[in-house]
Specification:
The structure is a homodimer.
Chain A (H helix, E strand, L loop, with lengths): L8 E7 L12 E7 L7 E10 L4 H5 L19 E8 L9 E4 L6 E5 L4 E2 L15 H13 L7 E4 L5 H12 L4 E6 L2 H9 L5 E4 L5 H8 L4 E6 L3 H10 E9 L20 H4 L3 E4 L9 H13 L7 E5 L4 H10 L5 E5 L1
Helix pairs in contact in A: 2-3, 2-8, 5-6
């Protein structure tokens, strides 16, 4: 049964060309395409909200990485929430809200196995943020990869972003001694301490990261959640206490660099201080999904976990919204209302 | 009861001054000092063999680290094996062979709690090498920190040294797919493949480490045991397979550097390849001592683990022997016959 209001054609955003360095809107093409017919076992979803995330920059390059690159001339993809408007699957019926991976388009034909219904007592955008990939990333990185323990002092870089703001709050809610964040504007730094409850925060553009971190963490740090790489990573290694742990989640400082950036010059401290570092990608950690949801959903329902969202309206503005994430324009999760 | 042949005075090696950069024999003083009287609960040991190790370079500097610095004007210390010549402890009697931590002197008054008797069916030097700290370091780093698994391809830097040569052999004996080592001379490279059973080896002075490693490991590496740091670490990160693991044991390339060396420029691969790195110091791992001994002692008794030793005779030559270790003159474990 198909919703009679489904049009014949709809918009999608395609990769027009691969960027060298910083991408621009010229790397994207907004195209009108036939709305797909859902095949056997598929559902047709009218997207309401979609996610734009820093990791998508990597997929714009041709290099093989942990997610397949976007293809030139094809629509991009990524997390989205929408309404089922037609179903060839016994598991879904029209009108249901589903989370799936075919964003960057107004209508998507999705394999039923790739869609999940989302609870309707929570805003659908939450499933792209605090209860979606960014929330899961924060939880897995802090709890599993950095093996957070009560009493730890935690440093988070890119702390005003979708992931970082949740890492800091989860640490505080679980008994961190002190939580420190870095961000790239005075406004974000203010938000970190006043709204997200960080104990200290600094603007990494104001002075060398190492200096500011040592001042903010006079007793050193036990956990570093790395979203930035580069000088932040070197500063964190230098400030770590013995047996400190690093969760390596991203390196936004490197994504648009056209040549290799200097690496941390203090790697020998891994030995002297017995540090550990674990790189991770959230998709590998499906076995923690239930634990994550059971831990975080109640905090969201009770209003104890603040999740900022920055909304941009209209699929046509999705490329600009994505570029904004790379520049750091957003606070919390950037969502495009399709 | 004291052995009547104990002299009134004996030699010890003291720290004369702290080096800046490479140490020289001028940083050491050979002194004649009264042989100590063992106090209550102590034993007097006539040292027969002592260990000189790269980590001692760190202790020559004043900087606080994981082991206390040597003190100027005082004798150095370190692993040694000797014969009990006088005992004020019920646990030891004269004539026993013991392992203890007061090397760099001919006679040592050792607390009974700090001495261990060693099996007399194995050469006493083995307890400074394959069954001592270097062996334990190799075992702990490979098995526990790098979580070695059958079928792994393993790369070891500084592979002809006391620790490295054991890492490679333990990996092979436990089912490594391929073991690759780097060393600093053609002679050592030859030893690695011909004597220690490495599958491939290269001289890091011949060409960039990254190039040589990629050639030696066409299918990438799963484990890197790092004794060297610097360009070796960057090359290993670049060659790692997904979910690769690094045990950070040392960074001999950095010990005598007077300024910070460039760091690995490819740290972002920790995320994309989900790498992990664990720094460690063997002394933290006493809980693995029994497991280590049960695993390694039979291999030594059966002659299945080749442990090279380079012997230098005479305590007066200990400083030069130590400098030789830093330069890489030794193959396998460097032992000073006191």
């Amino acid at each position: 049964m198909t919703d009679s209001s489904v049009p014949a054609t709809a918009l999608e955003v395609r990769l027009a060309s691969r960027p060298a360095g910083w991408p621009t809107t010229d790397n994207f093409e907004i195209a009108e395409a036939p709305v797909p017919e859902p095949g056997p076992g598929q559902i047709l979803v009218r997207n309401k909200a979609m996610s734009v995330d820093p990791y998508m920059r990597g997929r714009m390059s041709a290099a093989k990485s942990y997610v397949a690159p976007f293809e030139i001339g094809k629509p991009l993809d990524g997390g989205a929430v929408g309404e089922v408007v037609s179903s060839n699957s016994d598991d879904f019926s029209t009108g249901q809200q589903v989370l799936h991976a075919l964003g960057w388009r107004e209508y998507a034909a999705v394999d039923a196995s790739q869609a999940t219904t989302v609870a309707d007592d929570l805003p659908s955008s939450a499933f792209l943020g605090v209860l979606g990939m960014p929330g899961m990333t924060a939880y897995v990185g802090l709890m599993d990869k950095a093996r957070f323990q009560q009493g730890d002092t935690v440093f988070v870089s890119g702390a005003a972003g979708a992931v970082g703001s949740l890492v800091g709050q989860l640490a505080k809610l679980n008994g961190a001694e002190r939580v420190i964040g870095s961000a790239g504007s005075a406004e974000k730094v203010r938000l970190l301490t006043e709204r997200f409850g960080f104990d200290a925060a600094f603007n990494y553009k104001d002075a060398p990261v190492g200096e500011q971190l040592r001042e903010a963490a006079p007793n050193g740090i036990d956990v570093y959640f790395d979203n930035v790489g580069g000088d932040h990573l070197e500063a964190a290694i230098g400030t770590m206490n013995d047996f400190g742990r690093i969760a390596a989640c991203g390196a936004i400082s490197q994504y648009n660099a056209t040549e290799a950036q200097p690496g941390p010059r203090n790697m020998f401290q891994f030995v002297t201080k017995r540090l550990s570092m674990q790189g991770f990608i959230v998709n590998d950690n499906g076995h923690l999904k239930r634990e994550f949801f059971e831990h975080v959903a109640p905090l969201v329902r009770e209003g104890r976990l603040i999740h900022e969202e920055t909304f941009v309206d209209g699929l046509r503005n999705a490329p600009e919204a994505f570029l904004g994430v790379l520049r750091g324009d957003n606070t919390g999760k950037m969502i495009v209302n399709v």
